[in-house]
Specification:
This protein is α+β, with helices and mostly antiparallel strands. Helices cover 17% and strands 44% of the residues. The chain has one domain (2-194): Clam (outer membrane lipoprotein receptor (LolB), chain A). It is built from three helices and eleven strands; from the N terminus they run H-H-E-E-E-E-H-E-E-E-E-E-E-E.
């Protein structure tokens, strides 16, 4: 009988979320494990991207989606065509979805209230210290994978999970304006490559 109860208890713990006052380290360990472990987090990597601005999943008639290739070094390096992007808030969105923000020594992480997004029950982690203003990340209670980020005047929804070199990542992101709950940017990662160092010629300003 016990051998049937143990898996059931594990399932209940996984789907229960975190009560107020729960040690955030427990939640962090859970989400890191879900993507492959802390040692597998993306730190320096190259991505192929396709994206468009607008409020529909497809660009307006007569328009095409834009493509580009980026090289990133977390937490704040992003190069396009060899040029570093400088003061670009999107760097911190990327740092967040890689989950590197959760393990940075400067980050103060607190358990946020549970939240339901698109019918998905989520538990939340609020991060401050390493980022201003504070950012809240919401994770699917069933899978412990990132579902949504609320930051500044936007929120980000993540989907279409894939795996590269032992780490899971969300290949699709949609950005919404919090004030009117409307999408304004659609993004897809079409390729990804973990790097051991920045390619030759790429330097920080």
């Amino acid at each position: 009988m016990l051998r049937f109860l143990i898996p059931l208890l594990a399932l209940l713990i996984t789907s229960a979320g975190f009560a107020e006052g729960t040690d955030p380290k427990t939640a962090i360990a859970r989400v890191l494990s879900a993507v492959g472990g802390e040692d597998k987090l993306l730190k320096i990597f190259r991505i192929g991207e396709i994206f468009h601005f607008g409020d529909k999943p497809e660009p307006p008639e007569g328009k095409t989606r834009s493509t580009r290739e980026s090289v990133l070094e977390m937490p704040d390096g992003w190069w396009l065509k060899g040029a570093e992007r400088g003061d670009e808030p999107a760097k911190y969105d990327v740092w967040a979805w890689t989950l590197g923000i959760l393990v940075d020594p400067a980050s103060k992480v607190e358990v946020a209230p549970d939240f339901t997004d698109e019918g998905v029950d989520c538990f939340g982690l609020k991060v401050s210290g390493s980022i201003t203003p504070a950012m809240t990340l919401f994770f699917d209670k069933q899978t412990s994978l990132l579902k949504r980020i609320d930051w500044r005047s936007d929120y980000y929804r993540f989907s279409d999970w894939k795996e590269h070199d032992g780490v899971k990542y969300a290949s699709r992101t949609i950005l919404f304006k919090i004030k009117d709950d409307k999408p304004w940017f659609f993004h897809e990662i079409t390729s990804i490559e973990r790097l051991t160092a920045l390619p030759e010629g790429l330097k920080r300003p």
